[in-house]
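Final report, closing paragraph on structural work. Over the funding period we assembled a curated collection of sequence-structure pairs, and we close with a single example.
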Amino acid sequence: MDLKISYGNGIGIKINGETILLDPKVSDFISFISHAHFDHTPYEIVTRPYCTEETFELIKARNPEFEANLVKIGKLINFDNFSAEFLSSGHMLGSVQVLIETKNFSILYTGDFKTTQSLTCKKIEIREADILILESTFGLPGIIFPSLEDVRTELIDWVEKQLEQGYLINLGGYPIGKSQEIIAILNENKILPKVSASIKKYSEIYRKFGIKLEFSNNSNVSVKPINVVPSIKNKNCRNCVLSGWTLVRDFGTFGLPLSDHSDFNQILDFVQQVKPKKVYCVHGYTKELAHAIQKKLKIPSYSLSKIQQKSLLEFKI
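Its predicted structure, as stored:
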């Protein structure tokens, strides 16, 4: 069976002449969309991609012209030369990994993934696969997050302290995914925040799929887009951005590493559980992660962004 993998219009996989595109910018052939974040969604559709209903609704709220074939997590889709199945990736509402299986080998594309449990989406499901196409956002050795519980506790302690001192609070998160997680953390501690229009729009979709989120028009705590918060200059306000990137970037304001991705150690643990024969790293610190997997786990690993094409000769399954 002939297999080729390329990187360009998303990730391209060709199995016996049948073309698969993973998170392409132009949806064509057989395309799969892992989740609703802008950098993983198409701006042009030639053929309708496959995605979850949650992902469809979130993208549709941003792009009313978006169309897709809707597939539930765990449902097998059969094609001529392979089958595909969506597995939860733990990244955000509706996010999935794509498991592709043939008679001879299996391929797992992670999309963006998180191995710790979110308050606002399903926990990741981990399956074994022969070839792993691995998200590498925080794949740099040394990027290690504090425990999720510690970050949540520190956030609430900080918010309560600022409120006691009479300040208004601005919390910054990405409008889809992170902001809903922030709202859920606040709600767990009986805080109903005010939210921006864009965050409210996406939060209503979360509510539609059973995620309980409560907010108010009258609150001293606001959740706003992450790019807005650092620019708020008001002596009566205290600002905080919430992102894993606060460990390596200066946002110009206070920040906490609340992430919807896995850190370096969590990625390595995930790879060990998948037990792949080969790993291809995409989206992030690809070269550094591939080197670390090769060195620490002794699994042949490559930076896919630097590879134009691989043929069957490199996939001895």
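Residues 148-256 form a domain with the Rossmann fold fold (CATH 3.40.50.12650). The chain has six helices and 20 strands. We thank the funder for supporting this effort.
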